[in-house]
Amino acid sequence: MKVSIGKKAEHSRRYAWIAEHRGGPLSLSDRQQLIRWARECIEHVLFLTEGQADSRILDALNTAKTWEASGVSTGTCMKASLAAHAAARLSSNEIHKNISRGAGQAVATAHMADHSLGGAFYALKAIKIANGNVLAEKQWQEEKLSALPVRLQTLIRDTWQEKKLDQRI
Predict the structure, then answer these.
(1) How far is CA 113 from CA 5, 135, 152, in A?
(2) Which of 5, 78, 91, 118 has the most CB atoms lying inside 10 A of its own CB?
(3) What is the DSSP letter of 115?
């Protein structure tokens, strides 16, 4: 007996993060809002690269922005994500590594919405490494998050706590 994608999705522990077209609850609009939040979190800390951001970071962020407007495919986003992660692996600068990882996670939100947490998480890590004000950055992220529907805010906050991300910054 063949099980439909929807039935498989319902049994996933990540069900709340699965797109509607894969049998989950997240609409395209939900995913567009999540990718925007993740992208904005990384863009907000780009100043830490002092104008020396790897072009793959910028490409990932631009690709995410284009995907928000339905301008590129998820496959294009996945390629941009891999490129940003490659930039992280090749960098010797810990701040740049975290910003690259965050950009990679942000654009990967097109593929799997829970990657949106990575944009915020790696932005906070970059701020911490730079001896910046992590609390102020977290408050800025929360302000941006408050523009999303309450159910998405709750999903992000609950998953953040479940993964104990504050303890890993």
Answers:
(1) 17, 25, 11
(2) 118
(3) G
